[in-house]
Specification:
The chain is globular and about 55 Å long. 49% of the residues are buried. With 412 residues, the protein is an all-beta fold. The strands form 6 sheets. The chain has a 9-stranded mixed beta sheet with strand order 13-14-15-16-1-20-19-18-17, with no helix packed on it. It has a 4-stranded antiparallel beta sheet with strand order 2-25-24-23, with no helix packed on it. A 4-stranded antiparallel beta sheet has the order 5-6-7-8, with no helix packed on it.
């Protein structure tokens, strides 16, 4: 998630076990085989939104509906569809109290070499809510007016106790084998458990010793803002979650080290087992991870990217890590499998006419294996702020399918 413009109206975890290292092997080649686009100015029914942001890139808020934007995680959906999760909306706690947290079902008609319109159909799958008052701190729906303003909270939010981007900054989600959903949040950071309709089932689960400045529980800060659970994997057997922090702990002298914690779904508790992911040491500022997705019971995909967009984007890559692949220094080895700024496009699916397609977005936060050598990748368009594709124009939501030159099981 990207921090954006705001307009206002009035115990440290011990470093233990494994570390994911910086060592790389030869990159896999990748080819664009499908692309579909959901236009930036796509809206769904819902409360008026954008009351607390400034105009950007020709878009003048507030918006009469809810923008369909900020896709930060993807799951397989019914049939050939996908489920995509929106993040907190406009990028900060203060500017997103009127953005409701949602999961959409999307049906891309991918443009390929031989077929497809390149369009995306969508519908609301569910909106997160807390009708049973399980959240153990005040939420937007508990107030008559949005905080620090004279604007009344929309009745739909208040009456339905809908969750908003000022309550949680959800950046990852997974579905358990019992059909319930688990969301990774950045404000706490918390794990949030809902039923299949998005209703919160129990109080959010904090991570002991880790809290951001946005933590509603007021715990001592040990993590920078917007650096919580950006990615989260679930094992294929559905027994454990692995939320990955986007930023290092403030107490860690190694500012490239990110922590993965193991959470047991049977006991609903952290096990104490940790793994470390080490970000690349590049000349670009703002190095972050975008997603963490299981390939098997011990192998995972990680999106890692810099903070650049458009011509300033230099590092947008996908790595494969393996909990059983550890170097002599105790670091898990990173295997680069895709460079999203250098995708072969021999069939001109991307329409550049150059034979090369790039994904030059500041935030790329969704990856899903479709087969042994095919990945779905989606950007987070940060509507209406990010302009990675065309300067001065809000980015669309782009869905691309890339084919690797070898199966994910072959790392070298």
């Amino acid at each position: 998630m990207l921090r954006k413009i705001v307009r206002t109206h009035a115990p440290v975890i011990a470093f233990s076990l494994l570390v994911i290292g910086i060592v790389q092997t030869q990159s896999h080649a990748q080819t664009l085989t499908g692309r579909a686009v959901l236009p930036a100015d796509t809206f769904a029914p819902g409360p008026t939104s954008g009351e607390f942001i400034a105009p950007a890139n020709g878009r003048i808020p507030p918006f009469a509906k809810q923008p369909v934007q900020g896709f930060s995680a993807v799951l397989k959906g019914p049939g050939d569809s996908f489920l995509v999760m929106c993040d907190n909306g406009f990028g900060a706690k203060a500017n997103s109290p009127d953005f409701v947290l949602r999961v959409y079902q999307v049906d891309p008609d991918f443009k390929t070499k031989s077929r497809g319109t390149g369009t995306v159909a969508f519908r609301i799958f569910f909106t997160l809510s807390d009708p049973d008052h399980k959240v153990n701190f005040p939420i937007v729906a508990d107030h008559m007016q949005y905080l620090n303003s004279s604007i009344d909270v929309d009745p739909a939010i208040r009456n339905g106790r809908l969750l908003t981007g000022a309550d949680f900054d959800i950046e990852s989600f997974r579905q358990a084998h019992d059909g319930t959903f688990w969301f990774g949040d950045e404000f706490g950071p918390f794990l949030v458990h809902t039923d299949a309709s998005g209703k919160v089932l129990e109080a959010p689960f904090p991570l002991a010793g880790v809290a951001s400045p946005d933590d509603p529980l007021g715990r001592p800060t040990s993590l920078a803002s917007s650096k919580g659970f950006e990615g989260m994997a679930i094992l294929p057997d559905g027994k454990r979650l692995y939320p990955l922090l986007e930023g290092p702990l403030t107490t860690d002298p190694d500012k490239h080290r990110l922590i993965i914690n193991e959470f047991d779904l049977a006991t609903k508790a952290y096990t104490g087992r940790q793994f470390f992911y080490r970000m690349e040491d590049t000349t670009q500022s703002g190095q972050s991870i975008g997603d963490f997705t299981a390939v098997s019971d011990h192998r995972f995909l990680v999106i890692e990217r810099d903070s650049g967009q458009g011509a300033s984007a230099h590092f947008k890559k996908i790595f494969l890590v393996d909990f059983e692949d550890i170097d002599s220094n105790g670091f898990l080895v990173k295997h680069q499998i895709a460079d999203l700024l250098n995708i072969a496009d021999p069939d001109d699916i991307g329409g550049t006419g150059t034979g090369v397609f790039t994904f030059p977005f500041v935030t790329i936060e969704s990856v899903l294996p479709l087969s042994a050598n095919t990945l779905l990748v989606i950007n987070d368009n940060n509507y209406p702020f990010s302009t990675g594709r065309v300067a001065g124009q809000p980015d669309d939501d782009e869905f691309i399918i890339i084919k690797l030159d070898r199966p994910l099981s072959e790392k070298k």
